[in-house]
Amino acid sequence: MWTRPIITTALLSMTLPGCASVSTQLPDITLPQLKSEQIVQEASAFAELSRLKADLDRVAFPVLRANTALCPKTKYDIGLQTHSLKSYSKALRPAAAREIAAASTPSIVYVRPGSGADKAGVKAGDEILNEDNKAVSATAKSLQAMFKDGTRKIRIRRGADVRDVDVEPTEVCGYPVRLSMSGTVNAYANGRSIRITQGMMKFVKSDAELAMVVGHELAHNTMGHIPKVVKNVILTGFATRYTRPFELESDYVGLYYTARASYSLDNVEDMWRRMALINPRAVARAKTHPTSPDRYLRIALAREEILKKRAAGEPLVPNFIKDNKAPDT
Ligand SMILES: [Zn+2]
Predict the structure, then answer these.
(1) Which of 36, 91, 97, 302 is the most exposed place for a label (fewest CB within 10 A)?
(2) 138 C-alpha vs ligand 1 centroid, how far in Å?
(3) Domain boundaries, the chain
(4) 239 pLDDT exceeds 60?
């Protein structure tokens, strides 16, 4: 986890005219007006969601691609995301169908510019078909198995047109990065995937800062922190006792991941000065996480270490305590 969740979006319950408890004359609105405004807000919410998802994918992809040598698990990526109605909460499904054409079967919702799928002419709205000509999701195990075998052909349906296209898969770290619909400034790793909140997407000031957040969560997964924390909970009953060193290690290793993806490390530690503004309690004292000054200073030192290695032409690999644990780059 990136930080303790401290900012929550307060949902204020609002009542419409007709409520007996108010003592002022509220402006009146009609049901059609309400419905039409609802459609406007849903449309802009989905447009924003699509923009943030594309932004996150654009920034996270280089981090996942540049660190395969340090990732215990890899997969093949052709640069697209699929969705279906089930990808959305029940309340959002009618709007998802209307605004972004989500249907009960999976279809492509996003194609990364410059990716294998993009070069092959695959477009949002297309469906990926399996050998039985049924639409499948991009994460389907059968697709991954195909790419592992060296297959480059996928079958695409666009309206009535069905065709086989050649795609060039890229090997990436096997921990998908997803957007989490929450205003909280946070990010999470669960050992299998990574989630970055909308709140965090708005908090970061640059691609490099977002890449550092992705790198931090990726490090939790690659360094096996999650099973270790779970094991400690089982053995000792305390998870928090062991969280602080893991956070510092993820900051350290994650900064290497960021550098290996060619993001600039200039002033990345400044994020922790801004974090102090929204979470002043973490400046002097933090129960489960390192304090923000601690993280600020150590990230600055890690940056110096990385820049020295880069200047000397040395491989950008974190300093492991046991040399034999360091993998080849
Ligand atoms: Zn963390």
Answers:
(1) 91
(2) 28
(3) 74-172, 174-325
(4) no
